[in-house]
Design brief:
Distance between the termini: 59 Å
Length: 695
């Protein structure tokens, strides 16, 4: 046993290297160190490492642990320093270091405009700002939203826009359990946004574009137009675009939810799966020629060339770039040293990518990709050996099933943590959809090649459209099954770590029959169950009122124990997308389900009595007269009613006025001024996020 451990680490050196690198990245995110401190520790550690070489042999032996400790410390420092350097907020010319409310900004669009419901959106990079009449160099990424009346025909990638309008810090909706949009953009160095109407900006006559990026966008445009021309049906064309190049703007939202619920959303979220399909096909293609020596060197060249051509064809989006790097390391590792461990190859690719961008560590796609590949490598062979199947066709499907099952083992904790659900029918859907989507992917590639011959392209397009329609119909049918998805899972980070500890420990016990691993796995599961039971006990006693921050909509949940009652716009009951995006995360966080008759709740519109709290709902012009002031705990104002705070204050004595997101910004600002002048407490969900009132 003592000899096995050194051999293990010797075979996988990059696994040893990436652990302290990740530790440094995490350390810098929790305890931000200045570069002076990091460099100082690095220099001192390097001196200890140098001095070690001048010690006597006996002293070196006594201090044999010192070089390893020093190298690991330097790697921790490297991870922390890379994280510091990558953070754009530490750049002297970053736009956030200026007074962003009183400057003119010159920015360049870094992508073609994307159409949204009421605006056009584009990521832009700041070139310069005009501060007190003087132009200064500046840097930083921003999001620009143009109104629909904008002259979008004059704008494209590389267009330069000059505007004099305050940049706004990107904020979250502030709803409990909601998506952290602010942090998501921060990891991409984007902290500000601006909304522009036609008179508020000027398009410069000059452009500032990169020829290579322009070429990528042109390719993507041609691919999209080709697919839209030959793929019939809006849903089918949207899935075709997402499957081939990761373009998701044309996807039907309900269909995306169906793909997610059935465990095959990775099909339309371009990732390592797509490159894996192509890689597997190429390996199969070269298999008959493995005896030829020259194939050994031709194979990696052809494979890498095709993989990177596909990556560029897909527009070079970050998710597929990461996968391309990963497969590049795998191909090179197999070519250079066939005895090299696949774990070392994966660690090497992750090491390089984290050195390029340490923020990949928090990317869900990055985590899921590596978890899935490691899980397949570690478990697929063992799962496949569960059954012996003589029939070759059945054996093929069992092999596919075993790979699908194995991929889930290490991704389940992440799925629970990030998506709060588990697709119960993932084996059925993956066994059908993965091979089918592979056929569709290659059919689309053929369609692009033959698009110069319209008659042939029309025929291939018709076949591809039929396959896409069948795939979408199959997913929608499975999604309609009862219990297709186990929903409402709410695991904390600590519980996720415990799940991984349990899975890894029990797997080691099953594979190597080590009793300590079994005890560790059972202990982790016991702690997990205790934590979950304790949290559930606390949630059964919760009593809350949540006024959500939803643009143009009123939404209020009354929570008693693990049940809730909803008051708000009826459209939210029909619109699954809005409900899933704004309301479902909070209900999952609080582990609540709808109640027919909620304990403690009495509604006599416009008044609501919830336990000891009396609430007044105002969503239309209000006229009320009384001989004496009535006391209410909360007044919630929605949908821009024509009223004055002074009129309400003359009739009601209220502890807190709440203005939700259904009101316009200018009205909220006016009401807030009126409240301040009358010394009344007020709260705006648009400014401060959802109001969570604990009773």
């Amino acid at each position: 046993m003592p000899q096995a451990q050194p051999y293990f680490w010797k075979k996988m050196p990059f696994v040893r290297l990436i652990i302290p690198l990740i530790a440094g990245i995490l350390l810098q995110s929790v305890f931000p160190f200045s570069p002076v401190v990091l460099l100082s520790v690095g220099v001192i550690t390097s001196l200890f490492l140098v001095l070690h070489f001048f010690l006597s042999i006996s002293t070196k032996y006594k201090l044999r642990w010192l070089p390893g400790l020093a190298i690991n410390t330097l790697l921790v420092i490297t991870g922390a320093f890379i994280s510091f350097n990558k953070d754009i907020r530490h750049k002297s010319y970053w736009i956030g270091n200026y007074t962003i409310n009183s400057v003119a900004v010159l920015a360049t669009l870094q992508e073609p405009l994307v159409e949204k419901a009421k605006t056009y959106k584009a990521e832009a990079s700041v070139e310069a700002i005009n501060l007190n009449g003087e132009w200064k160099d500046a840097t930083g990424k921003i999001l620009i939203y143009f109104s629909k009346d904008s002259n979008i025909q004059a704008m494209s990638y590389g267009s330069r826009v000059l505007f004099y309008r305050p940049l706004q810090l990107i904020k979250n909706s502030g709803n409990p359990g909601g998506f952290d949009y602010k942090q998501y953009n921060a990891f991409q160095d984007i902290y500000h946004q601006v909304f522009l109407k036609t008179p508020e900006y000027v398009i410069a006559n000059t452009t500032n574009s990169n020829a290579f990026k322009q070429w990528l966008f042109n390719i993507r445009f041609v691919v999209i137009k080709t697919l839209q021309r030959y793929i019939k049906g809006d849903k089918e064309a949207g899935v075709a675009e997402a499957l081939l190049i990761g373009y998701r703007d044309d996807l039907d939202k309900d269909l995306v939810q169906a793909y997610s619920n059935t465990g095959v959303v990775h099909i339309i979220a371009i990732s390592g799966l797509h490159l894996g399909m192509i890689y597997a096909a190429l390996v199969l293609l070269f298999k008959p020629f493995t005896k030829n020596k020259w194939i050994k060197w031709l194979k990696p060249v052809v494979v890498l060339l095709i993989l990177w051509v596909f990556t560029l064809l897909a527009g070079g989006v970050p998710s597929i770039l990461r996968s391309a790097v990963m497969f590049t390391f795998i191909v090179l590792g197999e070519t250079i040293d066939r005895k090299s461990s696949i774990y070392n190859t994966l660690a090497a690719s992750a090491f390089v990518m984290l050195c390029i961008n340490p923020f990949y560590l928090w990317d869900v796609g990055f985590q899921l990709s590596y978890a899935a590949v490691i899980s397949i490598v570690a478990f697929s062979r063992h799962v496949y050996n569960w059954f012996y199947v003589k029939n070759k066709l059945l054996d093929f499907f069992w092999k596919l099933t075993s790979v699908t099952f194995a991929a889930q083992i290490l991704t389940v904790p992440l799925i629970f943590y990030f998506f709060h659900q588990f697709p119960n029918l993932f084996l059925i859907t993956n066994c059908v959809i993965v091979p089918l989507s592979s056929v569709i992917l290659f059919a689309e590639l053929i369609l692009l090649v033959v698009s110069i011959v319209p008659a042939v392209a029309g025929f291939i397009g018709a076949i591809t459209s039929g396959l896409l329609a069948f795939m979408n119909g199959f997913i929608e049918k499975v999604n309609s099954f009862p219990y297709a998805v186990y929903d409402g899972i709410q695991n904390s980070l600590e519980q996720t770590i415990l799940l991984y500890l349990a899975i890894v420990s029990i797997s080691l016990w099953l594979l190597h029959k080590t009793k300590p691993a079994l005890f560790a796995g059972l202990a982790a599961m016991f702690v997990f169950i205790v934590m979950d039971a304790f949290e559930n006990f606390g949630l059964r006693r919760q009593e809350k009122v949540i006024v959500y921050n939803m643009p143009q909509h009123q939404a209020i949940d009354f929570i008693s124990g693990k049940q809730y009652a909803f008051i708000g716009d009826s459209t939210l009951l029909q619109d699954g997308y809005l409900r899933n995006f704004h309301l479902k995360p909070s209900r999952t966080l609080h582990r609540i389900s709808p109640a027919n008759n909620l304990t403690g709740l009495y509604i006599g519109y416009p008044f609501v009595q919830f336990y000891e709290k009396r609430i007044l709902l105002i969503d239309k012009p209000f006229k009320f007269e009384s001989d004496h002031k009535m006391y209410v705990d909360l007044i919630i104002i929605s949908h821009n009613p024509r009223l004055y705070i002074s009129q309400i204050a003359a009739v009601f004595k209220c502890s807190l006025y709440v203005f939700d997101g259904s009101n316009s910004t200018w009205k909220i600002n006016q009401w807030k001024k009126d409240c301040d002048s009358l010394h009344l407490r007020n709260y705006s969900t648009a400014d401060s996020g959802a109001l969570v009132l604990n009773l």
